[in-house]
Amino acid sequence: MRSIKNRRRFVIALMLVALVSSTAFGQAVTSPQSGPSTKGAVVKGKAPVNKTVLKVKLPKAEEASLPNGLRIVLLRSDKVPTFNMQMVVLSGGLADPADYHGLSTFTAALLREGTTKRSSRDIAEQTDALGTTLTATSGISSLTSTVTASGLVENLDQTLDIFADVVRNPAFPQSEVDKYKTRTLNQLQFQRSIPQFLAQEQFSKAIYGTHPASFVAPPADSLKRVSSKDLVGFHSTYYRPNNAILAVVGDVTMKDLMPKVQKAFGDWQKADVPVVNIPAAPEQSTAKIFLIDRPGSVQTVLQLGTLGIERTSPDYFAVLLADKVLGGGPSGRLFMNLREDKGYTYGAYSGFGASKYRGTWNASSEVRTDVTEGAMKEFKYELSRLGTDKVPTDELENAKRAIIGSFALSLEQPQALLQNIITQKLYNLPADYWDTYPQKVSAITADDVQRVAQKYIDMGHLQVVAVGDASKTRDILAKYGTVQVFDADGKPVGGGESNR
Amino acid sequence: MRRVSKFLSLLVICAFSVIAVQAQAARNVRVDFKETTLKNGLRVITVEDHSAPVIALALTYNVGSRNERQGRTGFAHLFEHMMFKGSEGVGTGEHMLLVFNNGGNLNGSTNEDRTNYFEALPANQLDLALFLEADRMRSLAITKDNLDNQRNAVQEERRLGVDNQAYGKSGEIQQELIYDNFAYKHTTIGSMEDLNAATVEDVAAFFKMYYAPNNAVLTLVGDFKTAEALAKIRSNFEMIARQPDPPTVDMTEPQQTAERRANVDDLLARAVRVDVAYKAVAGNSADFYALQVLAAALQGGQSSRLYQKLVKEKEMLTNVGGFMDEKRGVGALYTNATLRPNVKAEEVEALIYAEIDRLKKEPIADWELQKAKNTTRRNFINGLQSSLNRAVTMGQYTVYYNEPSLINSRLEKVGAVTKEDVQRVANKYLLDTNRTVVITMPKAKTRATTGASGQ
């Protein structure tokens, strides 16, 4: 099939990520006379558009539980004979000790490196032979640890046997822990060659200070000290049936699934799990500019943003729409302005995250070095404009249509639907949350959008990160404020600050 | 939010499992389609499917970077960008707005062998999708402003993917080294110089020659009634004039007679990387499918021979991967390995070649054959869930192989591969004389300690 990649296709793959994975909007289309309110597009209004937004009915998940407290959620999808199952353990990086960030990440990563019944190699060979993918991940600032298996329904029983073994009986052999450490330390070095990684790392640090969300990769200190014993400790404390949800999507019925789940997880022992306090994000610091010097760069990677909202914030839907207008896809203002009008970049987007602590709201782009100044100017213009000028009605209505209309396409992505259900459970959102989502989107007004833009995209607290050739960009950035310069290893360069 | 795409080689083959050890019979998935050719030569393939209120439309044009001439590398892809800049009934950028604002998705992509354009939309927007694709096939707006704007975007795309990325240039150098025939001896993204040289006259001539209905395949999948949809397709597309068939490209690739090799100093890299390629065979051939199975055993996933030997046992690499490239012309088997510090590239190479020798001497294990087929099957049938993916895949199979039914037979073709086939293709293609090796060495640029600020 077509997803075989080589380097040249890597270029195109980036484009696919940029375009296909986003739904977006941002322009006056329904009233061509009003003309485009943003740059980069001309609206002729001749194409035949059906004005009706298709209403779709989302499939319902079925739920069950085991006496040991394990909750099961099943979303039936029988179009093709495959399945995807996730054991969502309701503790992640936020459960790490304050001086040991990354412990949950290491625990998850080493689950498949050996159990009491199977070696690392057995697990790799047996899952691959079944055509099953088996992954386990937990982020440093995540609420959960997740083990995922994806495979063919005819191999469901055999997959469940390995899946349950990995979830329940990991042995964390010290030899595998040692191999993991050295391999991961080298991978962390490798990541430092990626400019977007450097930008994200510095941006998170700028926003979050010492909060767990300030780490985008495990700190080397944690990695160096990790031992089998620590991993056993984290696992036995948190990987418990009463602290987990088994979420399944695919070509299987609850009637067929439950006996298999009972067999695999029925005798998994429950236990009291410590309550984890979710640390609040720190107060926003004043506006700052960080420049990561990456000699040899021909582009400047720019990332600008502020602290945003929690997932359950009453401002959620207003931020969702404001972000769509700003840069939630290729028809957002950032893309239309920086790429389609100015030709500065291959893409410019915004996005926001939201968890049980406040996420970030940020905008980013990669621009050739000699237009760094122009790009900064346009970013500032678009970020400010969202708060100073009310979004035109047509533009806002298009944003709503984009979001609501995309529910039809989501019906062909059962895994995304399952993810929505998991989100609803993680944040204790109402049971009808996704069914009433379109109404909540529809209810947002231009005043709401302006209000949240003013509230969160506060220029007095804007954090700016640039990764590129400092010799060519330092003076440009200094026009916007004090610049702190670091090298690609995070060390201050040339006295650290530059101002003029 | 910004996503950094990893350089994973997703080995996507496709297998129909015929393994006896499996307890349950594997259910087959069939895609029923109807084929029609319009009077102007446009091939139309429709798949009616009412399982979700979605329509997906793909236009696959029989043109890619293989059709470029010397001095115009990157042009087919630059042209693809122009197709989003408007036509008689659609303003510049309006295409994107119309699709996204109605809850849809779209993109275009170019490779050596084809260019495609596709969108998925809620099912009540079929008229919109057909209008957008027909209007640009009929009446593309070709202006200097549009060209200059997208030349900039494409040059940033090149910087993003090649010039500003570690190992970005290594891939380009390897491709230019592997091939002798110009058709594949240059990258699809092209050189900055050639992108600068492109003119509006080039765009107009390319449009006329390659973007004609008789050089394209339209695939439509989803929630519609076939007879109605065909009537709409005719009313949108049938008035577009046929053009003389474009000249065929000579894809003959001379036999390679000696190993080729390059060393690359990379300012942006932090680890040594070894890239090995063996020139092999065209896609959708028996040998191609056998090489896909071979690639799964050699370098697919954590159970693979190279991962177990070089990453886990010897701890010489941080990562290894690779794939068998599918092309209409001669493709290659690629392997890439990222080295840990203080590991010698020649030692890594020697161990890779030892594993390749083992593939020549002994058949792969039963479980490895099963792995290749099951992994392929899972990937392939999961891909069939999406209307858009079906539309794009069938368009590609039709343009590549004149075989839309490959969507139903592909898994059987992989299923037919035997252990003997794998051993045979190892001996046929994985020869030293067929090999092209690129070694990338990190070479950090030194900077004056005070951080020159350009004052």
Care to describe what's here?
The complex is a heterodimer of chains A (500) and B (455). Chain A contains 17 helices and 13 strands. Chain A has 500 residues and is an alpha+beta fold. Chain A folds into two domains: 62-265, Cytochrome Bc1 Complex, Chain A, domain 1 (2-Layer Sandwich), CATH 3.30.830.10; 288-498, Metalloenzyme, LuxS/M16 peptidase-like (Cytochrome Bc1 Complex, Chain A, domain 1), CATH 3.30.830. In chain A, strand 12 and strand 13 form a beta hairpin. The longest helix of chain A is centred in the middle third of the chain and has 18 residues, at 174-191. Residues 1-37 of chain A have low confidence and may be disordered. Chain B has 455 residues and is α+β, with helices and mostly antiparallel strands. Chain B folds into two domains: 34-237, 2-Layer Sandwich (Cytochrome Bc1 Complex, Chain A, domain 1); 260-442, Metalloenzyme, LuxS/M16 peptidase-like (Cytochrome Bc1 Complex, Chain A, domain 1). Chain B is built from 15 helices and eleven strands. In chain B, helix 3 (126-139) packs parallel to helix 8 (226-237). The model of chain B is unreliable at 1-23 and 448-455 (pLDDT under 50). At the A-B interface, helix 1, helix 3, strand 5, helix 5 and helix 6 of A face helix 2, strand 4, strand 5, helix 3 and helix 4 of B.
Which descriptors apply to this entry?
heterodimer, A: 500 residues, alpha+beta, Cytochrome Bc1 Complex, Chain A, domain 1, 2 domains, 7-stranded mixed sheet, 6-stranded mixed sheet, 17 helices, globular, disordered N terminus, B: 455 residues, 5-stranded mixed sheet, 15 helices, 11 strands, 17% strand, disordered C terminus
